[in-house]
Structures
1.
Amino acid sequence: MITILGLGPGDPNLLTREAWGVISRAKLVYVRTRRHPTVAGFPKRTVVRSFDHLYRKHAAFDDVYAAIVTAIMRVARKGNVVYAVPGHPLFGEKTTSLLLAQARLEGVSTRVIGGLSYVEPTLEALTVAALATPDMPVIADPMNGLQLCDALDLAVAHHPALDPDRPVIIGQIYSRAVASNVKLTLMNQYGPRHMVCVVGGERRGTTGVGSSDAVRWLPLAELDHGDWFDHLTSLYVTASSAISSFARLQETTAHLRAPEGCPWDQEQTHASLRNTLLEEAYETLQTIDQDDMPALKEELGDLLFNIVLQVQIATEAEEFRMIDVIESIDAKLKRRHPHVFGDVHVADAAQVLINWETIKKSERKNKGETRKGALDGIARALPALAKAQKMGARVERSGFRWDTPEQRLAKVREELQETLAARDEQQRFEELGDLLFTLAVVANGYHVDAESALRAACAKFAKRFSVVERLVDDRGQEMKTMTSSALLELWAEAKQRTRA
């Protein structure tokens, strides 16, 4: 028999009567760590053996946990074992799940004796502190969406898998180094001034669970600025002051489509939103070209709403749901980045692109799709300039390419001469198209995005032309009545002014 019991959150007075009874009757108790205030309160005749030495022996926690399970099972094969862990055995305690699985595999009986987890005293300490200090937030009922997270999982993540609209308690922030990594992960979602609260560990066990001395409020950016962490420290992260989660945006969108929602949103279909989606995409591109970050934030929101609305329409028609969309793109990203999520090694970005095409070809084969040529699969709705450049890139990767920049420019000159030599309107139309196509393909050789370059040129032209218009107005003239030479002089002046 293996008895796994919880030692509670740190205050010896919070040990359950059942757990105390087992400890009092046991001659030997194994503990994961002696660094817990309750262990010091064991009966004097109780022999305690800890696994603290394994933390010094192994570099990874998983190796420590595996060694503990091995040791406990070795004893359990011969007789009864009492194994005590901090908090509740089934709450944030990996050795428990590993032990239960191994014991079941070997036919060893198990018994779990609960203990108070760190969550309840953390909430109590926060509540006491809030009542003592009026400007502190009052802690809501945890049933209203409180999230729980392990600091060690958060520390190795790049983005927190948390709902920012709901508060969260993060356990096991046992050192300043862990706090620093947790902070970096949280700051990928929360701002540096977002308020968090450190609930002290060992001080919580000695000062008292409900003492406001165990609570420290500070901005997220300052989380690791002090050495106030130990093995019983937890962190409380407040909810965002405004709706900011993806799920809440989905709720807003679904509400707009509901019977009591908006008539316009209710009428929309995939097809009716096509032009709106394109408009929002182009407006987003414009803010990028203008390097206008506040406007970009707004336009990305508009673009995101269009995507969420499309998915809501599909959800109502039982076509697919947002979880399907996210699952699909996440799997695709990981599948197409084996050099990040797998064991493939690449030398540079060029090799990444080669691997990308190989993976895409394999995906098409698995789907039963056949592609006859390199140009198959290019979206028909792409703007002509972007489509031309994409076609050029595709054929170049297939081996159909120029060897030098000089050869590219020679092709431009050839197309320009053919355009100038055109005999009629139809031939001129065709040759101008060839010239534009060639220019788009040439841009590939210089690693220039033709669409962006042309948008930038349009913006530059518009800026200069507006200066010319002002200069003409200042002279009291009409542009239509001015000579070409006079307008060219004004254009040169406009170029000089815009450069300045």
Note: The first strand starts at residue 2 and ends at 6.
2.
Amino acid sequence: MNILPFSSSTPFTMGIELELQLVNRRNYNLATDALDLLAWIEPSDLQKQIKLEITQGMIELNSDIHTRVDHLVQELKELRAALIKGARHLNIDVAGGGAHPFQSWNEQRITPSQRFHDLHEKYGYLAKTFTVFGQHIHIGVANGDDALYLTHGFARFVPHFIALSAASPFYQGVDTAFDSSRSNVVRAFPLAGTMPLVTRWADFEAYYDELMQIGIIGSMKDFYWDIRPKPEYGTVEIRVCDTPLTLEHAALLGCYAQLLARWLLTERPFVIDEDFYLLYQYNRFEASRYGLDGEIAFKKHEKDAASSRQSIFVDVLDHLHHLQGYAQNDADLIALKRLRHMAYERINDAGWLRRTFKQRGSLNDVMRLSSQLWMTHTTSPHFH
């Protein structure tokens, strides 16, 4: 059909995008300096990897394509250095985290661009509530059929990625009781959720064409699915992660996706049938609400009836053990070890943010220390 050609890319390469918070140094609320910051980025070549987002308190950092997690970390450090240098000119700080803890959505300014203006026109207040901060992970695949299998296969691990990355317990000034409140904001969009249950690229092209003809979508960007194929890049994109508080944490999540993809496309462990997403919403909620302490439910044929539910952290540990066989270098093994530590100890960034608030008693101070952490530390505070 060739309505939506899939650009082949090197299988199992990875790249990540990080949506970052720009905060002022008076009270650590969101700044509105994204446009000015972009102009200060040097060398100017890096400006193509640092992009504007829908509101002006956000900036997006895009990595190059990598085969190794340690090379990804090195590049992220270089991009961070350029970002911090630009931020200093404007007297602002930069932070990770999935949501700013006390910004008000109605005070956010839409970034001037035709696309963002159109989104604001279409989605009303939802466009400004979309001032939340996620990490997207891209994994390279050879063809469209593989991309669809991987998209569905990754869906089984959405609770893992939400729980490991959760970094948005505070929203609009309150503790939400969720580890990832950001997860709920994204769900409000009509084209959020999961992709349709198609397994052949030709069938997906027909679906895409029908929605184009009706006028529901204009491009793949209009799908806000948790996992989506990106045919123009030749990748599958995981979109459920909160932006972590440190660079290495973000890179570890990229490595986990890379190793899972190797296993999924080599062993094809899942049958993608009409029941595949039966428990998806329940498992997603558990991860958003409770993080690694949440539970994951299984259909009977996936686990024996006696263990139809399991703690998310135990499920993560089981898979990390299995993925040892897919590690290709020492950097992969180190990443697996660090992820195991996080899962075993049940620690994520939401816990760090809550502990910091308990110690300091001020969400302003939480943001100050969070931005300090992102700008000065590469390694997660969980390993200090």
Note: The radius of gyration is 20 Å.
